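During the no-cost extension, the postdoctoral fellow (Dr. R.K.) reprocessed legacy sequence entries with the updated structure-token encoder. One reprocessed record is reproduced below for audit purposes.
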Amino acid sequence: MSTPNFFLIGAPKCGTTAIAEYLAEREDVFFSKPKEPLFWCSDLGIEPHALRPETQAEYDALFAAADPARHKIIGEGTTSYLRSRQAVSACVSRYPEAKFVAILRNPADVAHAFHMEQLYTGLETEQDFAAAWQDQARREAEWDAARDGRPDSLLYRRIAAFSPQIERFFELVPAPRRKVIIYDDFRDDPRAVWLDLLSFLGLPDDGRTDFSPRNAAHAQRFPRLSHFLLAPPGPLAPAVRTLRLALLARDSKLVAALKGFLNVKRPRPRLDDALRAEVTAWFRPGVERLETLLQRDLSAWKGEGG
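Re-encoded structure tokens follow.
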């Protein structure tokens, strides 16, 4: 039975979709469909549009088509695993030889981008990021007190607070089997970062020079139709879920065409200077801790020097 030996664990809005798709295009890599099974992070609740397997057998089936003789890397890419308190531990326990990669980006940009993503999914109803940011303390308190399995998708401060997530990651995964990529490096020199990642995974250079963006900022062309497909009414949910899984498994070109029909590119609104300064200041202590953990200068994430 084929089992995963690679986990791209986050963070969201940091380029994981691009990395996953670049890897999946190789002959020696098998990537799950969907890319984010969300199976090991049940402590975070589940979003209405998620395609989470309900059992271990369903999860294992995502990798049934992999051929270990041909696919040196068999993986998945759930971006909430990094912030989950149980996901990485569970994966390490079940797949002790697996490798893990995290990608990090300026937390202020992640929080802003993730807000737009939740507007797209329909979970976020507050159109103004500034208002959603000011509401974070209340949202976090309600989420902490809840026992109803709700997702944490609207907790932008918590999602982009990377230092405790990386501390836990480092405690659980031995150094030879973990890697942290800084999004800024990938943006500035994608070829160098790509070669370094391939080396970590034990894969040969494929000569890739096309590092075009994937999963860029977008909105729904037909919101009602998109919301129906992402979160259909209860009686229809199983049938729509089955259809979505079948489309993912059988015809990626059809899925791409459908997404192109339903979505429209929409540049993310720029954070005004005052709000960026406020968000950056909130994250600064965590970024300073992250600099120590990674032994890396992250001055730009603290609003210093560009």
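The chain has a mean pLDDT of 89. Residues 273-294 form the longest helix (22 residues). The remaining legacy entries will be reprocessed before the final report is submitted.
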